[in-house]
Amino acid sequence: MQELRKRKQTIVFSEPPSILSFASVVGKMEACGPLSGSFDLSARDGHFGQISWEKAETHMQRTALQLALQKAALEEKDLDAVFLGDLLNQCIGSSFSMRGKNIPTLGLYGACSTMAEGMLLAGMSVAGGFCNRVSALSSSHFASSERQYRFPLGYGGQRPPTAQWTVTGCGAVIIGKSGNGPYLRSATIGCVTDAGVTDGNNMGAAMAPAAFQTILAHFRDTGTGPKDYDLIVTGDLGKLGSQALRQLFEKEGIDFGPHYEDCGVLIFDLEKQDVHCGGSGCGCSAAVLCGYLLGQMQRRKINRMLFCGTGALLSPVSIQQGESIPSICHAVELHTERS
Amino acid sequence: MQELRKRKQTIVFSEPPSILSFASVVGKMEACGPLSGSFDLSARDGHFGQISWEKAETHMQRTALQLALQKAALEEKDLDAVFLGDLLNQCIGSSFSMRGKNIPTLGLYGACSTMAEGMLLAGMSVAGGFCNRVSALSSSHFASSERQYRFPLGYGGQRPPTAQWTVTGCGAVIIGKSGNGPYLRSATIGCVTDAGVTDGNNMGAAMAPAAFQTILAHFRDTGTGPKDYDLIVTGDLGKLGSQALRQLFEKEGIDFGPHYEDCGVLIFDLEKQDVHCGGSGCGCSAAVLCGYLLGQMQRRKINRMLFCGTGALLSPVSIQQGESIPSICHAVELHTERS
After folding, report:
1. Which of A246, A266, B127, B279 could form a disulfide with B167 if both were Cys (CB 3.0 to 4.6 A apart)?
2. B325 to chain A: nearest residue by CA?
3. Domains in chain B with CATH codes
4. Which residues are bridge partners to B187 per DSSP?
């Protein structure tokens, strides 16, 4: 940990950009979970009226962006850039959703950390004076992910208890120079961390050390601790990964206390919904952020939040080649007050 | 074209960041091509001493970054961020090359436009005052790409005349606040364009309209034209795509004249090297930029260049589903003079 402590990973926005609006779209199962009332839209089934799951994912992205724009009384032409990505090979969910839209597009790959990465870069583009209004968005789809990362759904493979359930969902935020908040105060860029986990069905364990390093770097760079936040929330560590993260901090003598949650644990009822360790996927943190979390901030139930997107940077090829799973975590500090 | 003309897609850097150093690593075939002398390092075979092509790609990235750092007398710890990506599923070339390096990492997916996208974002991060020194890098590998996008190499599939040859190569630049140039003067963010091409073996035709739109937007936003540049260079349109781009501009009444080249045409001897339409892949524009092109700028043979990364945003799944190929082009304006 010695070298980590020397490096500054955090960008502080001296003129904090504001979130102008946000929207979320989810699948049926997510709409049956504990956060049900917080999403803007849910589908009756995973197809969203489309002929393929990939097209369904693209449809979610387009819908979420449209809803977010509507809420801010903006149109597509008002956006100077969109920062987006997904889990599909070559990120086709995102490329196809931006097709023919005539919006300057910057594609990202941060696995399930993409929403946080997008907000970090979107914030930079606005705070740096390069863009006026931008969007960050990200999605995942249970069925398109399963067949790509693991087995075809028809195969009916058994899921081990450590497995998580890829969320069918999408979240989009619009970020601008001036607005009523919440505001992006700072962002911490993560480093690729690898704890040597080789089990693609235990991604929480693989990602917890990345979350630990980034949050610790954030605390160090900003001189804060868990008590300075109403909520520190990780993207999709799930039940086991969240426990592992708490333990890593305990070893450092830092108690997270009641200030810590995980989007993958929040989005499903882990007892009743048969999702084992909880939700995962780019859409997990994106939909929970753009539904429940920013909703709570709007109502001033949460005033200061550290949103930590967590990504497992594996591919089926890397797993088949016996590689361990590199992970990353990017953190964005959101505050209801501008300064 | 009407709507396009209304939108500003170009970021002008009022304090242009400088390229501090650059380096390129290529495979054997690239080292036998016309740009042979311009690369820093080439391998005897496609394995680069590694046990898989994926590991070979990671090795190229690590080597190119190391060389670029050495040339600038910097170390990894001096980097505030790396912006990088590749073509592999879930961008594993990049994730694995940054593993354990303790460098803040921002993963990108822009297909073969990634080098330009990385430079654009790297420039933004420095010009905005968020980072002091950053790197942008990108790679591709013929063998890892072929088996992923098309057929296993052992199958010996015939390549149609419109096909291009994925470059085995990597380029890395280090960008900083102050230096001796070349300088990043401006950058134009591309929109996702789709001309309806469905043939995955004719990517030049698919990408030419994206290059056309971005370059036209750049001309419009900056009030420039082909004569203002010593060189306008696209990433990997290849022979046919380059011709298509010239024709699109001719229709607009704009003659590119002798000011236009394509990295995919430059890197191979199209007559002798049996690469059909030329090179392609993220590594094509990255290695040509970080070898020949920036070399020419250093020697003041080229003083003002528009570097246009071109990406075909397809996946094998999207092609199998009968989808056309969305494309994107990001452009970066480089100048030997700061202002």
Report:
1. B279
2. A96
3. 2-11+180-335 (3.40.47.40), 17-176 (3.40.47.40)
4. B11, B332
